[in-house]
Amino acid sequence: MQSASKTKIYYPALDGLRGLAILMVVLVHNFGFLHYFFFGWLGVDLFFVLSGFLITSILLSEAGTQKFLKNFYMRRMLRIFPIYFLTIAFCLLLMPIITSSLPMIYYKQHLLWFVLFAQNWLYIFNPPQGNSILLHFWSLAVEEQFYLFWPFIILLIRSERKLLWFVLSLLAFVMLLRYILWHLHIADLGYDSFYTFTRVDGICIGSAIAILWRIKPSFLKNYTSIIVLSLAAGNFVMYFLNKNATTRLPYLAFIGYTTFGVMFGLLLNEVITGSSKIIEALFNNKIMIFFGRISYGLYVYHWPVYLILSPVLKNYFATYTSNQNIALLCSSLLCTLLAIIVSYFSYRYFERYFLSLKTRFS
Question: Cα angle at 262 between 235 and 230, to 5 degrees?
């Protein structure tokens, strides 16, 4: 068991988990008006858990090999950069020609932040103005910063047990940091989005699972019930603190992101162990794997497609029905379908070329 965990990195059902993550994000963005998909943004946290697990597994397996850093960074660049910068170029160069309803002044003025994948820090005191067409890129910035620093930390802390303690300490630190920031009431701090520079809970949890699979693969199986009970206790404490408090603490920022990150981590563990036939059926199927394969492109494209086309399509469908909700639903469905089509062709005829180049850096 332990030997296998040290060598196996690709698990087909994880593509299905990616599929779940992107569907959650698309639902909250494109169908948020239905009010049933509030927690869809937690799909980002599922992405973070997956990234933490997969990247840490790869780095631990390859650390110390020839051209370790160069190979890792080149593979990440080939995966992330092409459609990221393609989308930015499209928004800045072609968007003003297509429509004047989505001004791009904010993004032009702060372009360097996006080029350096630092926009999550930009949003702290200066959130997007005019429109939010590239707002969702904050999570890509968090991922890139993780890719930038994590290999060096792994090289510095060679002991896997010490590395595990480091990850858990970082998780505790960001939770404490959010608590301190909330009580400081810093002027002009974007408290609605201050998680963009502290929301690494999922990455820490995914990384911790990858390390545990190397040093004690049976840990999560043996202690799942204790972990779940601890999460329940923490949430009850949070509830009673808020019940009698004059100032309510935001649930997601204080314990919610961590709670859901751990639950996603336990789900990931079930997927990679393959011990549940139900979970295997849910995630290791053609539909979920399809969405997992195009998930990066769909994440990048779906929001711009929606913002550009939704107003036009809503007005079009409104000519056939007096029910505005039906018109909005139809426009959202069509926007989502178009985004899926764009993502499929992007993956097949654009992204796969760059992905094929990754073999040169294996």
Answer: 40
Please say whether the dihedral angle defined by the alpha carbons of residues 220, 223, 227 and 228, taken in this order, is positive or negative.
positive
Tokens 């869809």 sit at which residue? 40
**CA-based R_g, the chain, Å:** 21
Query: Helix 257-273 to helix 13-30 angle, to the nearest 10 degrees?
Result: 150
Determine the residue type at 309.
Answer: L
Secondary structure (3-state) at 76:
helix
Q: What is the pLDDT of residues 234-260, one digit of tens each?
A: 998 888 878 776 667 788 888 889 999
How many other CB atoms are found less than 10 A from the CB of residue 311?
A: 14
AA identity, residue 94: L
Rounded-to-integer distance, Cα 274 and Cα 89, Å: 42
Residue 136 pLDDT > 50: yes
Q: List Cβ<8 Å contacts ≥24 apart for 79-84.
A: 79/296, 79/354, 79/355, 79/358, 80/140, 80/143, 80/144, 80/296, 82/350, 82/351, 82/354, 83/296, 83/297, 83/300, 83/301, 83/346, 83/350, 83/351, 84/137, 84/140, 84/300
3-state SS track over 109-136: HCHHHHHCCCHHHHCCCCCCCCCCCCHH
Copy the structure tokens of residue 15: 């593509």
| Identity of the residue numbered 56 | T
pLDDT tens figures, 48-95: 999 999 999 999 999 888 899 999 999 999 999 999 999 999 999 999
**Alpha-carbon distance 356 to 299, whole Å?**
21
Alpha-carbon distance 167 to 146, whole Å? 12
What are 213's two structure tokens? 């699979």
User: Whose structure tokens read 């290999």?
Assistant: 151
